[in-house]
Design brief:
Blueprint lengths: L3 E4 L6 E4 L9 H15 L3 H4 L13 H12 L6 H15 L5 H17 L18 H13 L3
Antiparallel strand pairs: 1-2
Helix pairs in contact: 3-4, 4-5
Length: 150
């Protein structure tokens, strides 16, 4: 089999490949690449979320968006349980877990979200009073309902 010259995937130096599947120039680069892969796999949700270039808002995903909306509506986003629920939602959205691991995360999210929203009566669509047509009055009435003063 002919030997070929190719760049090392880790350090970039050109080496003579003795196999068609080789990627690294030696054991040191192979080990360094493995360490980097392990470190990237064990990174927490804060490190694993990649923001698009030039974006002001962090990337939001489906489960995180729904959980954040529920917590924001209940004014519970800044609680310990609320932040725990958001961390679980981000982990679910990363789709790194599968099977029983994902099912466990979903169950933990349900329990944590339930704790975060304990005692909060979220209004349903049919419980909403009719809008007056004036957005400022509607906002004032909604604020009063949330505070429980009306």
């Amino acid at each position: 089999m002919p030997l070929s010259q190719r760049p090392c995937d880790q350090c970039g130096t050109t080496y003579t490949a003795t196999r068609s599947t080789s990627r690294y120039c030696g054991a040191a680069c192979r080990s360094a690449a493995a360490r980097e892969r392990r470190a990237a796999a064990s990174a927490g949700p804060e490190q694993a979320v990649v923001e698009p270039a030039g974006a002001d808002e962090p990337r939001r995903t489906a489960v995180e968006q729904m959980v954040r909306k529920q917590l924001d509506d209940a004014h519970r986003t800044d609680t310990v349980d609320g932040q725990s629920a958001l961390a679980l939602a981000i982990r679910i959205d990363e789709r790194q877990d599968s099977g029983s691991g994902l099912a466990s995360l979903v169950n933990a999210l349900r329990a944590t979200l339930s704790l975060a929203l304990t005692g909060v009566a979220l209004p349903t669509e049919d419980e909403q009073p009719p809008a007056t047509g004036d957005p400022i009055i509607d906002l004032q009435e909604r604020r009063e309902r949330r505070r429980g003063t009306s």
